Amino acid sequence: MLSVPLPVNEAQRQQALDSLELLDTPADPYLDALTRLAHDLFGVRTALITLVDRDRQWFKSRQGLDVAETPRSLSYCSHAVLQDEPLFIDDSHIDVRFAGSELALLNPGARFYAGWPLHDADGIPLGTFCLADPEARQLGEREKCQLRDLAYLTEGYLHLQHSSRQAEELRDELSREQRKGMLDPLTQLWNRAGLLHFLPLEQAAAERSNLRLGLIYCDLDHFKKVNDQHGHDGGDHVLWESARRMSAAVRPQDVVTRNGGEEFVILTLVHDGSELLQIAERIRLAIAERPIELEHAKLQQTASLGCTLLAPGESSSAALKRADQALYRAKHGGRNRSELAD
């Protein structure tokens, strides 16, 4: 068994990680674009942006992996953070550092591993931008430079996010444990508890900005058939990919939540119903524009959407009900369409 010692500055490192307010936050479309690029560029099964927490490694962005976190004790990223330098493992079966260890034996999907450390603004290592694959391989010098550049872009974006308005709101409104309880582990969106938390906050923001709070119900069409034909693993991937496309289709300040099952709710500040319907259509087209790739199939997924504006003095529950009724009309009107409530 290969133990993973803690860095000598572990307390300082953990404090730096906590201060960024990144752990247990929703997935980010920009970071997802970087890991998706890495996944395709290097042709590996898994590409991750990993943050090494106290007793776990948590994935801020992931491609090719269904879980949101794994134990720190079984983490190659922990070794990269400990060394604070890139870690390359061409073949864990024969690598003298890891061959025969519990780490190698329990990570068959990471026979090949390449991780580049990610740092905060003071140069403290927080995690890695990493690649993994079940087949042994070796990165050339050009590929190592490409991985370095992706890590550099990731670091810069995380530094910018730390000082953003949304990060400040998270620090003010939610503790880390509260965030963790409001995050859907599969899609990395806010769950229903998160929706109920953000509704009054967004309503207040709309009033301050002299805007309207728009609510969009989004339901994936014929989702039961997906589970029946492709199993729950296939269904989970469709939910995950649909969540990525929804988040990429809206603005950074919009709130995307998974209300349960295949149903999602989006909160957005708009001027009028026309603008709200345009956002709903962007979401619909983002889901339908290209097939979702499953392990052995390509699935053409669509979604139906119902949306409404919160009226002055109206309760959010009444507005949600009206958006749900608009969704019902979209379903019965042929699906793959958006409906605006009266």
UniProtKB/TrEMBL annotation:
Enumerate the PROSITE patterns for this protein: GGDEF (PS50887)
Q: Where in the cell is it found?
A: Cell inner membrane
MF (Gene Ontology): catalytic activity
Record Pfam families? GAF, GGDEF
- Gene Ontology cellular component terms for the protein in this record: plasma membrane
Predominant cellular place of this UniProt entry's protein: membrane
The protein's required cofactor(s) are namely:
Mg(2+)
Gene3D superfamilies the record matches? 3.30.450.40, 3.30.70.270
All copies of domain GGDEF, residue ranges:
211-342
Q: Mind telling me which InterPro entries this protein's record contains?
A: GAF (IPR003018), GAF-like_dom_sf (IPR029016), GGDEF_dom (IPR000160), Nucleotide_cyclase (IPR029787), Rev_trsase/Diguanyl_cyclase (IPR043128)
PANTHER family for this protein: GAF DOMAIN-CONTAINING PROTEIN (PTHR43102:SF2), SLR1143 PROTEIN (PTHR43102)
Q: Which NCBIfam families match?
A: GGDEF
| Annotated protein name in UniProt | Sensor domain-containing diguanylate cyclase
Species name: Pseudomonas berkeleyensis
